[in-house]
């Protein structure tokens, strides 16, 4: 009897007996526990552990002699099969999540298993990066064989089965990493369109490399004209790369060249990679680059050249140019030879060749000139005679063009005369008798026909360029075959011949027209040759795939469980095709790799798919798609048909499986039976029917008890096999309970359990409530009340009802039925919250790891956990989803009180509790702020103190050091003077916070521009120096600089000059006025100091009198004023006599920052018209010296 796990299950026995049984019991085979004492056995929420054979036993009392009785027992069995899906039971053997192996090593078999009933089917799938999954196997064991780079990825084993009409599935994964040598997937010339690049653009090349482990990338250059296939890079090249790693690593390497040069034309770019597992192959860009440029002289040749020869000798002149596209090259004779080269790029390159006449040369003399490179130009036959040999056009893609101009004698017998005539013509002295000839070496050219696909029509052209036409020539295909060589019959009979009067060259052209290209030309050689000159070119024709050359072979129809192999093959293509497999629209990759073979340029590609016929494949359209040249695709498809024996089921009421071929049907007496014999699955499909009835419906009305002695067969047959499902009947009756839903309550609540008898005849005479595992009767009615319930009272409760059925002779039979209810008691954590190691305080050094801290509590349902950090007044949640706090390496930001809060949701409310611990971290001081207090961008007053406050965090305690910094000082940490005082307060919780205050009183206006710095140190190290953001500005009323006296005296004489000076310290800048007492209403001199504003401190005023008159002697008042106040100085000027030629002694006072004075006397000789007077300068302040002295502040 089948039943799905988690469902309620009831089985009832039918008894035919006389006398009626006096005792009935249900037991599970192998156990003595009585599960039921009536004909019905109910199993609620059945689990897989309850599967097995159940025995029902009935005992009757038979009458014997002398009114004695004998117990007679009968029994029957029922096999209960519990069906269930894999759930989370899927596991791997060996039990792994990541497996790493070297390429070439064997990956051990990995077995996938799961608990399922019926047995699960298994499928292995490989996931790699963003690609769709790749099917790998349909068995429980994954056999990968020797590891390769294509095996890396996430492997998922999917286990599935069908449980009574429902599909169940579970899976498990592991990651496979393969260490392999780098593989270059692509190398691409970016922006390539077939057109030339410009020298002003940047050329980039991108390569994709797959590798594990990481690899080193090396770039190089290859050129078809170089014997070295990996030339080094010069300084114009730069390389960079990015890498993303999942199961292996993908490197995007980019090579950049700037500026590109036209001599780079023909370059291809190569790359290889290496790691600990080996080297990749060298991979090269498919296309070479072409760089367009204006013509210029090759190899930095000079613009001016000189040749020396003699009359009658041979002369060979050469000019070399760099140009893409090829230039037009022209020679002109204007006494000196001018060679010009130009192309469509616009600029013209020129070189001048001067030919000088030597005085003599012998008949056999030769001219020693530079070696002449091969001519790479085609010379038009209609060149203008005004030029020495006409323009020369260089073929496209040539980076260096050479032109040779050659003069020679006509015959050896007339060598002297001919040479003389030739040279005279070259020098421009004789144009009538000169013999001048242009001669080039024989050049054979096969015109490139480009990329050719099958079906194209092309023309083959071969040219010979030389001083004559070829006497014997060949233009043919090799190896020879009649089907392709027929185009070349008589190919050299009618050449086109052109003669260039200027160059004296013949161009002979052979052409084969309208050749229809097909694969017969592929890989053949095109030969064009004369007696001594040969040119050949390999032909490549791209073709395929073709429908007629592709085959998908394999048996389309089979029986489930049988192994089979399909093969997809393409016999002809160039290049090799890519094979892609599809199941419907889903791409998959067979386990075996494609096999590619090549013969003379033709590729054959094959791939085999091995699999086992399963019904999942039935009806699938499996396709193999071959993709070839220019994405030409050919598809071959087959439809799979998988056959299997019929699978049956019987649908109806109260059906239970005994074994896989037999069912029992329990039905009430007098009811109508209606059963359907149903086909679940079959291939080929067939029909099901009840044996002997010819229909799939079994209908019996008013069922009698005798129906239990009969058996009915559900039957189906197809070409694979026949299947039977037998059904036996038992008539049922007796008491039944309705199901009671599980009951949940909070601890401390009062709850009542109510039972309801659904069906019973007669009604029960006894009802009992018990807790499973206990014999104590808790109630004898349909209600059970549990007051102030505790967590210990949670569990399963059983209610049992007993009916007395009447039997013959007024005997009764006890028939018992029962049902259960699960009582769940919910409660919060209470005081059960605790931490691992029961810690309360944890102290670590900064940088050390903080051990994980685990929080746990006793809750039902399970608690949710949240961690909070309390730091002074801040709160921050660290982590919520787990009970484990992981802080990693400790830092100053981790200190504080950590609280774990455990919370459980119980019916209608949340219950929570918490536990805390303190984390202390020993770290070097950290200055959080240093602030100039009450700074509002307005100046400070020198009458009030200035304070600076700094906040320092530290643990343990730290020492604070203050200093001064000034933008005009070279020292960033000047010491403090006696006006400064420092104090600090400290509060310590988890660490210490120091509030350090620096006070300066009285501040001076000379403090203007100061900023204040500090640093801290403790046993863990030093903090950085931190400085106030703003500097101070201190206002003061004007005062005399450097403690100068208020009263000063100058002595001079009439007619002399006088220069009086006064210096002040003031912020803001002062108004300075000079008055000659007693008149204070009108100043005699004025100085504006406001321009200094709040940035200048020292101010000097000079009152200069060129010639002293008598009325100018007296007392002068100098007054300095700003909004803070006024300062006055009095200067007395006395008249002293001064003799002729006398000198004027005066005091020169020099003011230093410290305020000291030093004086000396000097002699100044003054010539005056009115006379000679003596000037005595009592005290003089030099503004320039003062300015220099304060520049250090």
UniProtKB/TrEMBL annotation:
Coiled coil: none annotated. Its main location: membrane. PROSITE patterns: IG_LIKE. The keyword Nucleus does not apply. It is found in: Membrane. One of its GO terms (molecular function) is cell adhesion molecule binding. This is Ig-like domain-containing protein. Pfam families: C2-set_2 (PF08205). Keywords: Disulfide bond, Glycoprotein, Immunoglobulin domain, Membrane. Residues 1-73, 94-173, 545-641, 646-726, 735-816, 829-916 form the Ig-like domain. The lineage of its organism: Eukaryota, Metazoa, Spiralia, Lophotrochozoa, Mollusca. The keyword Glycoprotein applies. It is a single-pass type I membrane protein. GO terms for biological process: cell-cell adhesion. GO terms for cellular component: cell-cell junction; plasma membrane.
């Amino acid at each position: 009897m089948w039943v799905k796990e988690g469902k309620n299950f009831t089985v009832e026995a039918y008894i035919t007996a006389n006398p009626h049984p006096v005792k009935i019991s249900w037991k599970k085979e192998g156990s003595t526990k009585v599960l039921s004492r009536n004909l019905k056995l109910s199993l609620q929420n059945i689990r897989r552990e309850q599967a097995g054979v159940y025995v029902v036993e009935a005992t009757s009392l038979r009458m014997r002699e002398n009114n004695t009785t004998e117990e007679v027992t009968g029994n029957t069995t029922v096999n209960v099969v519990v069906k269930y899906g894999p759930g989370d039971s899927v596991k791997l053997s060996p039990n792994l999540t990541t497996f790493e192996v070297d390429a070439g090593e064997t990956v051990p078999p990995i077995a996938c298993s799961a608990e399922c009933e019926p047995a699960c089917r298994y499928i292995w799938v490989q996931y790699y990066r963003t690609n769709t999954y790749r099917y790998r196997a349909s068995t429980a064991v994954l056999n990968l064989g020797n590891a390769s780079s294509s095996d890396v990825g996430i492997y998922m084993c999917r286990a599935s089965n069908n449980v009574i009409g429902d599909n169940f599935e579970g899976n498990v994964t592991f990651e496979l990493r393969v260490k392999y040598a780098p593989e270059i997937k692509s190398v691409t010339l970016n922006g390539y369109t077939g057109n030339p690049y410009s020298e002003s653009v940047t050329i980039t090349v991108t390569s994709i490399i797959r590798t594990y482990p990481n690899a080193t990338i090396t770039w190089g250059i290859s050129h078809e004209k170089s014997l070295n296939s990996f030339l080094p890079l010069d300084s114009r090249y730069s390389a960079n790369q990015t890498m993303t790693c999942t199961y292996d690593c993908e490197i995007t390497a980019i090579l950049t060249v700037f500026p590109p040069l036209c001599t780079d034309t023909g370059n291809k770019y190569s790359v290889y990679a290496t790691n600990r597992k080996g080297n990749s192959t060298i991979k090269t860009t498919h296309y070479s680059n072409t760089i367009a440029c204006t013509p210029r002289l090759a190899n930095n040749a000079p613009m001016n050249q000189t040749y020396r020869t003699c009359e009658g000798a041979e002369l060979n002149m050469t000019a070399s140019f760099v140009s893409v596209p090829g230039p037009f090259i022209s020679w002109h004779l204007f006494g000196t030879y001018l060679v010009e080269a130009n192309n469509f790029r616009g600029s013209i390159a020129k070189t001048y060749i001067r030919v000088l006449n030597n005085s003599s040369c012998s008949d056999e003399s030769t001219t020693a000139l530079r070696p002449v490179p091969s001519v790479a130009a085609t010379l038009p036959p209609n060149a203008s005679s005004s030029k020495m040999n006409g323009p020369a056009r260089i073929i496209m893609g040539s980076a260096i063009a050479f032109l040779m101009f050659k003069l020679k004698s006509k015959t050896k017998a007339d060598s002297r005369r001919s040479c003389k005539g030739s040279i005279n013509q070259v020098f421009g002295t004789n144009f009538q008798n000169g013999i001048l000839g242009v001669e080039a070496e024989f050049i054979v050219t096969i015109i490139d026909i480009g990329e050719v696909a099958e079906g194209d029509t092309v023309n083959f052209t071969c040219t010979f360029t030389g001083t004559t036409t070829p006497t014997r020539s060949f233009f043919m295909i090799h190896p020879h075959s009649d089907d392709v060589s027929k185009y070349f019959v008589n190919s050299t009979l009618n050449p086109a011949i052109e003669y260039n009067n200027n160059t004296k060259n013949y161009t002979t052209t052979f052409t084969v027209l309208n050749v229809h290209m097909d694969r017969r030309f592929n890989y053949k050689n095109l030969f064009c040759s004369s007696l001594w000159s040969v040119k050949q070119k390999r032909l490549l024709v791209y073709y395929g795939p073709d429908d007629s050359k592709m085959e998908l072979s394999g048996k389309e129809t089979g029986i489930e469980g049988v192994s089979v192999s399909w093969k997809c093959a393409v016999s002809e293509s160039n290049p090799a095709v890519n094979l892609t497999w599809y199941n419907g629209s889903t791409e998959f990759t067979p386990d075996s790799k494609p096999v590619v073979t090549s013969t003379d340029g033709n590729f054959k590609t094959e791939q085999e798919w091995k699999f086992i016929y399963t019904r999942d494949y039935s009806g699938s359209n499996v396709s193999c798609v071959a993709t070839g040249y220019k994405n030409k695709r050919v598809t071959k498809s087959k439809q799979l048909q998988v056959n299997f024996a019929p699978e049956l089921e019987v649908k109806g009421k109260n059906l239970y499986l005994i074994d896989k071929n037999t069912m029992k049907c329990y039905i009430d007496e007098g009811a109508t039976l209606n059963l359907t014999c149903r086909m679940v699955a079959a291939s080929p499909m067939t029909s099901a029917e009840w044996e002997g009835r010819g229909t799939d419906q079994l209908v019996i009305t008013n069922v009698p008890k005798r129906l239990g002695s009969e058996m009915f067969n559900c039957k189906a047959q197809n070409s694979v096999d026949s299947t039977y499902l037998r059904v036996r009947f038992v008539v049922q009756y007796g008491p039944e309970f309705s199901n009671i839903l599980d009951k949940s309550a909070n601890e401390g609540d009062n709850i009542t359990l109510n039972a309801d008898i659904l069906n019973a005849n007669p009604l029960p005479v006894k009802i009992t409530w018990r807790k499973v595992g206990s014999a104590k009767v808790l109630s004898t009615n349909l209600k059970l009340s549990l007051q102030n319930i505790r967590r210990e009272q949670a569990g399963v409760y059983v209610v049992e009802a007993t009916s007395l059925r009447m039997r013959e002779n007024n005997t009764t039979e006890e028939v018992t039925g029962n049902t259960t209810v699960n009582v769940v008691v919910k409660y919060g954590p209470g005081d059960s919250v605790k931490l691992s190691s029961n810690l309360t305080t944890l102290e670590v050094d900064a940088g050390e790891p903080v051990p994980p801290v685990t929080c746990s509590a006793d809750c039902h349902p399970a608690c949710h956990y949240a961690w909070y950090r309390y730091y002074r007044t801040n709160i921050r949640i660290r982590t919520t989803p787990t009970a484990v706090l992981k802080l990693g390496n400790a830092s100053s930001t981790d200190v504080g009180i950590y609280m774990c809060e455990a919370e459980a949701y119980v019916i209608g409310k949340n219950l929570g509790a918490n536990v805390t611990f303190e984390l202390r971290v020993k770290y070097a001081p950290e200055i959080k702020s240093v602030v100039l207090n009450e700074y509002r961008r307005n100046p400070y007053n020198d009458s009030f103190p200035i304070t600076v406050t700094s906040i320092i965090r530290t643990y343990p305690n730290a020492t604070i050091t203050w200093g001064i910094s000034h933008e005009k000082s070279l020292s960033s940490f000047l010491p403090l003077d006696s006006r400064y005082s420092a104090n600090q307060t400290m509060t310590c919780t988890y660490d210490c916070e120091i509030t350090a205050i620096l006070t300066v009183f009285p501040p001076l206006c000379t403090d203007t521009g100061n900023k204040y710095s500090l640093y801290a140190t403790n046993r863990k190290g030093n903090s950085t120096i931190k400085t106030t953001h703003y500097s101070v500005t201190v206002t003061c009323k004007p005062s005399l600089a450097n403690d100068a006296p208020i009263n000063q005296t100058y002595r001079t004489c009439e007619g002399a000059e006088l220069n009086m000076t006064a210096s002040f310290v003031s912020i803001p800048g002062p108004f300075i006025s000079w008055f000659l007492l007693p008149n204070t209403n009108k100043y005699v001199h004025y100085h504006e100091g406001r321009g200094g504003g709040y940035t200048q401190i020292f101010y000097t005023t000079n009152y200069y009198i060129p010639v002293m008159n008598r009325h100018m002697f007296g007392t002068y008042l100098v007054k300095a004023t700003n909004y803070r106040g006024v300062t006055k100085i009095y200067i007395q000027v006395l008249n002293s006599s001064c003799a002729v030629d006398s000198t004027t002694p005066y005091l020169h006072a020099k003011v230093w920052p410290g305020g000291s004075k030093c004086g000396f006397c000097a002699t100044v000789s003054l010539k005056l018209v009115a006379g000679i007077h003596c000037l005595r300068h009592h005290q003089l302040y030099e503004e320039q010296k003062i300015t220099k002295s304060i520049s250090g502040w």
